Amino acid sequence: GRYTVSIPSGRDLGEIPRPRDRRPAEPERHFMLADSQQLSASAFQDAVRANLAQQPPNEREAVIFVHGFNTAFIEGVYRTAQLANDLQIPGVMMHYSWPSLGAPLAYAHDRDSALFARDGLIEMLQQVRAAGPRRIILMAHSMGSHLVMETLRQLAITNDPAMASIGGVFLISPDVDVQLFRQQVESIGTLPEPFVIITSQRDRVLTLSARLTGQTS
Hints:
It is a single chain. Helix content is about 40%, strand content about 20%. With about 220 residues, the protein is an alpha/beta fold. β6 (about 165-170), α6 (about 180-190) and β7 form a beta-alpha-beta unit. The radius of gyration is 17 Å and the shape is globular. The mean pLDDT is about 90.
């Protein structure tokens, strides 16, 4: 689909202000969905190609953000818009949404859903690659990093041409077991460059994940 997000001025970077108590959103204070359009697969590919053509030649990059645990669809759309706006990310920004339940106690459900979504992400990468970007950048948060790593592993072991188009990976607070991550890296072989991991020991979601999965460090 294609989504236009209204972003209020005067907020702190990184913040996504939303109305509370089901009150109506106010454009000057809150993130709002200004417009949305459903696209067929071919129309999506044409839209990506057209948006890439509007970029300077050295910025014709496709950036795909993959959301994390406990993230409803619209929250993922808003986060994608916030990242593109606050970080001034060049190229064409896109969002891959996998079926998170959007509930803090649905960890097991979300983990299974992330694995379920691997083929969908591969299909999206293939469609974006066909649109002709200079390279594809993958950004993932939390459990979305697990999905990205599994997708890279599948691309590598099947020699999918889409793998060669990936020119960078950024994992933000990745929710991936360390031993599993090492196995994924071994299966992938040569990682896309740059390959960046951003994390914090104060991340409460990762602390909860470690307790749920029995990790001690």
